[in-house]
Each structure stands twice: as C-alpha cells, then as structure tokens.
Structure prediction request, 217 residues.
Amino acid sequence: MEQFLHEVWIARTPLVQGLMLTIGISFFSIIGGSLLGLLGGIGLTYGAPWLSWPIRFLVDALRGILVLVLILAIFYLLAVAGINFTAVQSGLLALTIFCAAHMAEILRGALQAIPEAQTDAARALGLNFAIILGLVLLPQALRMIVPVWVNASVELIKTSTLLSVIGTGELLFRTQEIVGRNFMTLEFYGLAGLLFFLINCAIEHAGKLAERHFALR
Prediction:
C-alpha cells in the first residue's frame, strides 16, 4: 500500500491532467451535443420533409455507427481532406456529434408524447408556433427527458475512454502511460475506475436534483 501511494504521488501530475481533460471533453461534448440535439429533435418533429429527412438520415447513421469507428474516421479522414485537427479536437467533435444524434432522437420522442390537444389549445389562443414551442412544448419535453439525459451523459463519460486510441491524453491514456512505467496494473486501473465512478456519481446526483426541481414546478 505504501508503495502504491508513493507511485500515486509521483504520478499525481499526469493523473490530474488526464482527469481534468476527461471532465473537460465530456462536459463540452454533453453541452454541445445537447444543444445540437435540441435543434435536431425540433427539426425531426416539426421540420418540413426537405429538412427532417436529412436530419433523420444523419441521426440514424450516427446512432448506428460504432463510436470508435467515428472517432478514428474523424481523426484520420479529416486529415486526409486537409483538415488538421488535434487529437483533443477530433475527440471532442466525435463525442459531440454522437451525443447530438442520441439527444435528437430522445427529444423527438418526448415532443411527440405531448398531447396534440395542447398545441391546438395554444393556437386557439392566437399564439404562434415559436411561442408555443418555447413556452408550451419544450418545457414539458425537457422535463420528461431529464432521467434519460442523465443516463446518456453517464454513458458518454464512459465512452470518452475510447479517445485513448488517438492519444488524447485523457485519464485512461495517462493511466496506461503510468502502468507502462511502474507495472502496477491492477492498482492504477482500479484507481482510474474509481475516479470514473466518482464522476458518474456526481452526474447522477446532479440529475436527481434536477428531477426534483422540475417535479416541484
């Protein structure tokens, strides 16, 4: 145990850097993906065919492809096309659009679950579609998707470990480097697993607080 703690102290800087990068990439991917998914879900539900069909194709394609394949495709194919992203930028883009595809489908389901009578009643009051969407439909849909959004966020945190294959320097990649130096495989992979567990617990706790907040309104 003493030797393990000594090695942890020696490796404290790369561990913290990897943890912060994991949190940063996951946070911006979730936020960016949720915002894009919001637009995509609205387009799928209420868009004209010329808009909803391309969105449907992209959503189904992105949801059907393996995340690892998506990460590798963005990292290598964009470089072939002359777009030189760093490993972090490529990973952030891959996770963002992957999250967006899932959030678009989740929001579409929530919007379609709202009774049509509510929209008809709002139109009878003379409200235009933008006001109906912003004040009537989206608040109810967002309340319904909070638990699913939390689960999707937790899964995205886990998925971020795949970014180690392109050398992003996130937590798993740093852990692999440390294990390659001291050969304490079980101990440091266990520590990495514990850190991921704590991150996911924090997200789940925040999600429960959000659920309680919406439930009281």
About this structure: The mean pLDDT is 87. The domain at 2-215 is CATH 1.10.3720.10 (MetI-like fold). The longest helix spans residues 12-46.
